[in-house]
């Protein structure tokens, strides 16, 4: 095979790339692309200390605030700065997807495929002391890791986490209830209300976990399971009925989320780190986990459903970012095209920050693609939508 000499990838993966119209040469740089870290806001003065700790020079990224690149061989997980929560390990392309959301103070944000939480933490850091973030993921163990990350970085105050299927999730931001309560103050509350979250799970919850056994992925029909909420996430003081209340489309137009991130499940073929893992796991497993044709067909439907449901919870004038770490047209531009056909209130938006990004335009106007050769980052596709009134 022509690429075999310069691309350290198995034939099956090269064939997958070719079948999807992707040039395998984008992977020639995977051994030399830098690693990236994001500094915790407020730790800017610790830069020299972090450099000494990691024993390398950090290069500031001009196009992405608080991001730095470092040589690929540097391991950050054992460093003091990482243990003490002064830095995050997150690829620059992931940072770009969050930047595209244009988070503003007071925003109520939904992150529909949130685990393990690198982007969720960045959203919370950008929000600061106002608004809220709702993180959803179908994988209980991955979302539990996300909760640990919130605790490590002391970011849980304004966040709530639900184990739920993002294609059917329908819980609205807490803002709706606080607005309503301030208009209806004096009304007497009935039923049990959520008190401050505690890591000691109540008897009922423990019984449910036992019933669910070791199942780590919830089904579509499984009701959303709240596994964490911060004191200012809008949950404390609500009744269960209020939390799970469903609104009409008209109500969501006004009271839905300001920003939605759909960082969808995908084949991860653009993710350099993911592909490199197969070198240790054995290239044989790549076939089952990434390239299997049935799986990729199902993924297209899942991505479209996640995008459609995320959009249904967005308020009018809000913005939604759709991203995947696949570079195939089927999981990106095709999903975008189909979604626009099916949703007349959806409009693609320009991503203002993208003019400074080291990436290429997608095959669909206003969409963007990072790949390791062009961008010196992991691969990522990004598109941004808004909801209009028609
Ligand atoms: C690309 S990862 C998300 C990465 C995450 N946004 C971050 O920055 O750390 C995709 C996630 O989607 C989750 N997922 C897959 N199917 C889902 C579904 N139906 N509903 C919600 N989450 C889903 C997976 O468990 C996985 O954690």
UniProtKB/TrEMBL annotation:
InterPro entries: MeTrfase_RsmB-F_NOP2_cat, MeTrfase_RsmB-F_NOP2_dom, RCMT, RCMT_subfamily_9, SAM-dependent_MTases_sf. It comes from the Eukaryota. The active site is at residue 325. GO terms for molecular function: RNA binding; RNA methyltransferase activity. Residues 22-388 form the SAM-dependent MTase RsmB/NOP-type domain. S-adenosyl-L-methionine binds at residues 137, 165, 263. It holds the Pfam family Methyltr_RsmB-F. Keywords: Methyltransferase, RNA-binding, S-adenosyl-L-methionine, Transferase. GO terms for biological process: RNA methylation. Belongs to the class I-like SAM-binding methyltransferase superfamily. RsmB/NOP family. This is SAM-dependent MTase RsmB/NOP-type domain-containing protein.
């Amino acid at each position: 095979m022509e690429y075999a000499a310069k691309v350290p990838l198995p034939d099956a993966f090269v064939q997958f790339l070719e079948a999807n119209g992707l040039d395998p040469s984008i992977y020639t740089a995977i051994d030399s692309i830098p690693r990236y870290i994001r500094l915790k806001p407020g730790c800017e003065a610790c830069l020299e200390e972090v450099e000494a700790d990691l024993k390398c020079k950090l290069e500031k990224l001009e196009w992405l605030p608080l991001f730095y690149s470092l040589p690929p061989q540097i391991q950050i997980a054992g460093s003091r700065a990482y243990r003490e929560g002064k830095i995050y390990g997150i690829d620059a392309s992931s940072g770009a997807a969050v930047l595209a959301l244009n988070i503003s103070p007071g925003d109520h944000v939904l992150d529909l495929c949130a685990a393990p939480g690198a982007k969720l933490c960045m959203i919370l850091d950008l929000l600061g002391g106002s608004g809220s973030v709702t993180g959803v993921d179908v994988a209980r163990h991955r979302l539990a890791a996300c909760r640990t990350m919130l605790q490590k970085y002391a970011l849980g105050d304004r966040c709530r986490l639900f184990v739920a299927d993002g294609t059917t999730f329908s819980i609205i931001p807490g803002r709706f209830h606080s607005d309503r309560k301030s208009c209806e103050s004096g009304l007497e509350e009935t039923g049990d209300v959520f008190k401050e979250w505690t890591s000691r799970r109540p008897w009922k919850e423990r019984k449910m976990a036992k019933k669910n056994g070791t199942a780590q992925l919830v089904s579509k029909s499984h009701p959303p399971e709240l596994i964490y909420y911060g004191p200012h996430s809008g949950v404390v003081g609500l009744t269960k009925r209020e939390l799970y209340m469903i609104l009409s489309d008209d109500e969501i137009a006004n009271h839905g989320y300001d920003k939605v991130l759909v960082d969808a499940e995908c084949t991860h073929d653009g993710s350099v780190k993911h592909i490199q893992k197969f070198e240790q796991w054995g290239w044989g497993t790549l076939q089952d986990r990434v390239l299997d044709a049935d799986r990729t067909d199902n993924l297209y439907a899942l991505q479209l459903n996640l995008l459609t449901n995320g959009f249904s919870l967005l308020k009018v004038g809000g913005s939604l970012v759709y991203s995947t770490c696949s570079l195939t047209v089927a999981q990106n531009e095709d999903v975008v095209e189909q979604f626009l056909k099916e949703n007349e209130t959806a409009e693609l938006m320009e991503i203002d920050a993208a003019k400074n990004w080291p990436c290429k335009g997608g095959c669909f106007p206003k969409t963007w693609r990072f790949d390791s050769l062009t961008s010196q980052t992991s691969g990522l596709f990004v598109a941004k939508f808004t909801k209009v009134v028609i």
